Batch of 2 targets.
Target 1
Amino acid sequence: MRKTLNKPGLIHILNLLLSSPTPVLHRSARSLQTLAYEEFKSSPEKPHNHTAFILHGLLGSARNWRSFSRSLASTLPPSQWRMVMVDLRNHGKSAEIEGFLPPHDLENAAKDLANLVKTERWVWPDVVIGHSLGGKVALQFAQSCANGDYGDSVHFPKQLWVLDSVPGTVSRENSEGEVEKVLQTLQSLPSTIPSRKWLVDHMLKLGFSKSLSEWIGSNLKKSGEEQTWAFDLEGAIQMFNSYRETDYWPLLEHPPKGMEIAIVRAENSDRWDSDVIKQLESLAAKRVDETEGKVSVHVLPNAGHWVHVDNPKGLLEIVAPKVASLA
């Protein structure tokens, strides 16, 4: 399982986070085409009443969110909540599972979540929390639920958390240049890498920072005498393109009845222009119609895009009270 691409100054923090002791996790015996995931319960021996899905960002994985999920579960009513940290298609352990057919877009990534629920015979999640790419997968999941794409038995999430993910389209001019530069560089490399040291040295020669180069090297896995990527790069790039091209403003303008879509904007994030912020604030201030859900907007202070790393305590203070209210 991989970490989300990060700004160089934050890479060492992620490394510290991922080297911390692993919580008690439960892995599923799953069929061929369902997603890999990690499950955390504050009281594993007791039944749970509510479920939250947590979705990582581009080139990330479930393990990026272990620490936050554990903290969230510990603040909620005891033994009532289960956190399911999912590896999206082409990412983490899901990249090793066959059967995820193209197109690799947000619609199919969200459908994978529905297939996981159905295959495991779970109740539908009460809460879906998605960061960056995962935030838009969460929005698509809500949209598909509302469209009836998953059948009549579906129950909408009561809360949808979109963490520092712009809900509209992202033009190439305003796209994340750092992400694109890294993806282009990875595409130019051979499919097998002689060694992690070779990769780090190569990235340094291309002008990337040492911390970022070493983080990219941590995304390698052993393949015989060589190294290869632990994610499906081409599939992930297709998902990134779908992320940029898909618009969920209509969903935010008319959320499904009974659902709250909570947008968390990181105070220091560079992904929000003033027009988008005004549009969100206008939707949040709109009088709620009884036939529709609502939108709320939250600003996470002292944080850039990597919200769960920059200010996990602040993020918890925003998310936990609302999630606890569902119980």
Target 2
Amino acid sequence: MPDVARKILWPALGAGAMLAALSTAPARADEPSAELLARGKYVATAGDCIACHTRPGGQPFAGGLSITTPMGDIISTNITPDPDHGIGKYTLQDFEKSVRHGVRRDGSRLYPAMPYVSYSGMTDDDVTALYTWFMHDVKPVAETPPATSLNFPANLRITMAIWNLVAGESEPETGDAATFDKLRRGKYLAHALEHCGTCHTPRNVMLSEKTDSYLAGASLLGWYAPDITSSKTTGIGDWSEDDLVAYLRTGHVDGLSQAAGPMGEVIEHSSSHLTDEDLHALAAYILQVPAKEDDGEHPARARAGQALDTPDIRSGELTRIDNLNPMDGKGVYDANCASCHGDNGAGTGDHYVPSLFHNAVVGSGHPDNLIMTVLEGVNRTANGVHAYMPGFDGKSDVQRLSNAEIAAVVNYVTATFGNGDHGVTAEQVGAQRVQTPKTP
């Protein structure tokens, strides 16, 4: 190559390389730190975003889950960073308005199945970390879930502006939430990130939370989110901090309770992934929430009942498979439950199958959760342990029980091992059966 060409070419290539380096430098500077991404992922986990924004068998955060409400079914949206189907075009300011105030990028209102009333208390730093993680680490999914269609007047999203005035918002916490003292951190987790009140606080006729009954228990999708105040009878006031931490980490505490349904999902996807420090902060705060008493819940729901101590004097006569006569509650229990829970209701020695006495679900004055457990079963994985019980609804691979059979066995179990026969009817079971989760 001639010297003149070298003198022109090499400086030009060098200048081009320098310009290329300068042009990519800002992109490298804008790359979020590993610490910020880790914090965003942790906030998303604590907020349990995946539970509502992922349909069964669907892609993470791509939406499509059907959430039953008194106004109709709300279909969760795609919150992946796909620009056309998700939130890829959202700025941080757009994201903050959605998360804290329930206002989408196009200005329309979100329905409060999205717990923005609770998330309004999040710190600026946590909102920023959450936005950064979604935009940089979540896989975009090019799917648009079916649109939500509610009954009038809820189908007019503008009505949510009026509802927001009634429901109110929390003032965002200030400072670095990671540095809060134990009780302040626990309150922040309970009120904002974990949004415990969304399920466990009863609501008024406008469906906003009754602030004077915080965590006192409420119906939810056929289930009953129980009183978790410091009441020693209706609530969890007789639990220790370690008991509650173990429950939030594993979904099971011997002789107290076990999680299924929506709470099982919370534990599987959210609370089981919190740090020990955060679990203890959350438990310490919840255990000092003022008690709300219910005269219908005596004795303490987690201490009710005892093992059945009755000799087995069955005749040995077999039940024919073509015998279509309805069985009573004990017959349904013997045929479907006793093989795991035992004739005496004591469960297994290793507590994998829980006892039916000294069991907060069986001992509750609200039979809703026992009905839903029989219908849906239990299927959660937390802390490396998979807890499973088959359901007995119309999709069961074990035994499909009728509404009358489920009512009979629930009444038998509560009368034998809990706080008495609740008089559950087939109609009540049928009403709860239709609230089991659906995929659009």
